[in-house]
Amino acid sequence: MGLELVRFGLDDRKTLERFIRVPWFIHREHHPSEYWVPPLLMDRRDYLNTKKNPFFDHVEAAFWIAVQDGKDVGRIAAVNDRDYEAFHKTKTGYFGLFESPNDPAVAGALMDAARAWLTEQGRVDMLGPMDLSTNAMCGALVEGFDSPPGMQMPYNPPYYDALLSGLGLSKAKDLWQWWLGTDTPIPERVVRVSEKVAKRARVTIRTMDLSNWDAEVDRIIEVYNDAWEANWGFVPVSEKEFRHMAADLKLVVQPSLALMAEVDGKPVAFAITILNLNPIIKRIDGRLFPFGLFRLLWDFKVAKRVRDCRLIVLGVKEGYRKRGIDSILMVRTHQNAGALGLDGGEIGWTLEDNDMVNRAIEAMSGTKTKTYRIYSQEL
Q1: d(CA 299, CA 292)
Q2: Mean pLDDT of the chain
Q3: Domain check: are 266 and 348 in the same one?
Q4: Is 361 within 8 Å of 333 (Cβ atoms)?
């Protein structure tokens, strides 16, 4: 039967289900990996539901499945994001949700389809992989295959870098993931300096009130778009889109690991660390029902299988940077994670050239564990 591509719309729920399940072929049959964590099927259905996910309010997107000899073996999405174009003043598109066997013919057919569609959309270059923007999971893992991914981080076979490079894509930016164990003490000098900074700058750190989450999200939004505005690849998030993401975030946030920094009562920075539920999610193989939810609750609440966490976002408003507020938040997060009895946590991702943040993590004895790559190509 050979190779064919099936293009479909997200309202075609039957074909969408096939699209969502392609990773099981890649990671269970084609290139089995003990570290791959199956995504929650319910989450992927919700994320790719144009009626539920506000992301689709400002994008056009196309989706393909690669079928080889009657079997779904690969997939890709192409995205034209009007918000990215408005913010960056460039006609850049994305490709994402990419999965492929180690077969240049399959990967090439998928990439050709995405490139052709983006060209039709008037795009002049593309970035990826992104699922489906820099505000979600992005990058292909190129270093650090010997351990499981962090919560809400991608994992792919080691051959992806060679496969994408062979198709003419080149590195646009590397993203770094870090690890800091709670048994690794923060250098006394760092703690001492952070305490002095907090006092001198009138910075107070408090835990967020999850019982008043909507109000806290208001404060987070106030800081978020301002804090990341100058970052490479940043796309502003609408309030509607942010609240959609925040609803899921609340489910995995530990109250003492959601921190707000204020100066004279005004929010100027925040850090949110989520619990790493991947060991539990892996056991339920993507299915919350009928018994997966019970296993998740049992392992999380009773069996205490959650041993680590991930600091997923830390931002400081313009005008309050280079004052050490980021270090204050990281020190407090480390202390609170230790108090919870966690073994440690991941930090990131961070941009490879964000020297200020990367140096702050290194100063706390953090070690770089994984590198993810975003590629680019002119169309």
Answers
A1: 10
A2: 90
A3: yes
A4: no
